[in-house]
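## retry 2 of 3
previous attempt timed out at serialization; input unchanged, resubmitting
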Amino acid sequence: MSLTLSQLLEEGTDRLMKAGVEEAAIDARYLLLEAFHTDLTHFLIERNRILSAKEESGESVRDFYRMLGLRSERIPLQQITGSREFMGLDFFVNEHVLIPRQDTETLVEQILKDYKGRNPRILDLCTGSGCIAVSLAKLGGFESVVAADISEEALNVAKRNGEAILGKEKIIFLLSDLFNAFKEDELFDVIVSNPPYIPTEVMKDLQPEVRDHEPVLALDGKEDGLYFYRRLAAESRNYLNPGGAVYLEIGYDQKDAVSTLLEEAGFIKIRSWCDAAGMDRVVSGVLEN
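## retry succeeded, writing output
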């Protein structure tokens, strides 16, 4: 039997298509490159070379088929490879954390822009993988960053990412249900959060990759999706220095509701930003001096 990388890719693409994977060809290629520990350039050079008998029965081919099986079960690609790029940094991910999305880069980029040349004390709530906190500390050079999450498993992932990207003891990681582990004299200049914001009723309509394999705790915003924004708006002011700001990632249709919550809680200078796709993605407010 003669087998080439191109044939393996074609077989993998067909298998993922039959499993209902939307970007079957792209995912099959990622898995093939991962299994053979190669890159696209070398794949293109080698794609029509006939594999030796030893290679056909070797570890790389077995790994490719194993990962195809997992992806066919709609397990997210990033959980299979254990890696996700965010803000140009490589983050470890698993089933205990929300996979970082490009949309969230809008949130990080705005804080980096607003606080360029400054050194604010930052609190990242619902930190998950730690992608926001770690990116801010790494790219902004901010020296005082605290990251909190209600999930101990998620915090373990965030700590791993913090140590891998920044080194030890660069960020303080705390187990906390929003502000529950904080004293009211612990004040910050910036509070940032990408909280759960999907209404419970909408959860059932999500893609299987998200609905069945990413943590419900990081997705479900309860009945109307605004539960955590109500808490953040009401409680954040107790943990902000005068003139401090809160930055919140939001769902595409939540700008007006979240802006109103911040206004009613006494925040001023309410601003919002769209993501790269032109969808409302971030809302910010400032605590009056």
